[in-house]
Write a structure and sequence with these properties.
By secondary structure, the protein is mainly beta. It is built from no helices and 27 strands. The strands form seven sheets. Strands 1-2-3-4 form a four-stranded antiparallel sheet, with no helix packed on it. It has a four-stranded antiparallel sheet with strand order 5-6-7-8, with no helix packed on it. A hairpin with a 2-residue loop joins strand 15 (142-149) and strand 16. It is globular.
Length: 281
């Protein structure tokens, strides 16, 4: 069930797609297309009144025109399993599928997907925007950066990276780059003078990192196998400071909460907040 901009709800059911809305105090259910998308894997905002749907059966577009909502396959939609989709600024959505790489571009009647030349990444495990650079890609065969120039998509290899395939968390780093939490610890991806690097963050033995979360009052909360830390950058250097040793076990939910972060885990409910006299620690 997907929230629709008009206040209604778009529903994917076993017999097709439907739009549920309230009109005159009554709930109405209208068909939104009988296309069989199979299970829905992810939904992306594509343009106002349009959503891109990544499903088992391919890439589909849900859009509203004249008060009517329809769901249909994107023209040129790649066949086979869709591994990952991510926005590529200025172009559209970058799509990785069994048959290779595609770009889904918006158009007046929905979207069209066109193939683009790309590397053999193997199955794509992660895609994340690297601010000011492009889209960082983790595939079975290594790490890559996709970017656009003159409406053309290009890919470059990031090079040797110590991370294995297990990445648990990724988030933007305030001064530029992306923090990556993996089974071998914490890493920072950055672009400097056109060169993208992914380097380990030293200063603490974290073990695998499973939580990366910006704190409302500054700093970034890091949850790891060996405890909790706050990451900050001082003088161009990223540092980790211990932030408590509670047993959060597996974290299921995190929400900003009155200047703090509310953490729901297997072993209970916790709050990450600034300690008196410790700034944002």
């Amino acid at each position: 069930m997907l929230a629709w901009p008009s206040g209604s709800v778009l529903v994917a059911g076993a017999r097709g797609w439907f739009l549920v809305r309230v009109a005159g105090g009554a709930v109405t259910v209208d068909a939104a297309g009988d296309v069989d998308t199979g299970p829905v894997l992810a939904v992306h905002d594509f343009r106002p009144g349009t959503k891109l749907i990544r499903a088992v059966a391919g890439v589909f577009v849900a859009r509203e025109d004249g008060g009517k909502v329809t769901v249909r396959r994107a023209d040129g939609s790649p066949s086979g399993v869709i591994g990952a989709v991510h926005e590529l600024p200025g172009v559209g959505m970058l799509v990785h599928a069994e048959k290779g790489w595609f770009v889904a571009r918006p158009r007046s009647d929905g979207a069209a997907a066109t193939p683009v030349d790309g590397p053999d990444t193997g199955w794509v495990l992660q895609m994340k925007a690297l601010p000011g650079s492009g889209v960082l890609i983790q595939g079975r065969n290594g790490w890559f950066l996709a970017r656009t120039k003159d409406d053309k998509v290009t890919f470059t290899s990031v090079g040797d990276v110590e991370i294995t395939e297990r990445v648990y968390a990724m988030d933007d780093w305030p001064t530029g780059g992306v923090l990556i939490g993996a089974d071998k610890g914490l890493f920072l991806a950055r672009e400097t003078n056109g060169n993208v690097t992914i380097a380990p963050v030293g200063g603490a033995d974290t073990g695998y990192v499973h939580v990366i979360r910006a704190l409302p009052e500054g700093g970034t909360l890091i949850g790891s196998r060996k405890g909790w830390f706050v990451a900050r950058e001082t003088g161009g250097k990223l540092t980790l400071t211990p932030a408590g040793q509670f047993d959060g076990s597996r974290v299921n939910h995190m929400r900003d909460f009155g200047g703090a972060v509310l953490i729901g885990g297997e072993s209970g409910l916790f709050v990450a907040t600034a300690a008196p006299g410790c700034g944002g620690r």
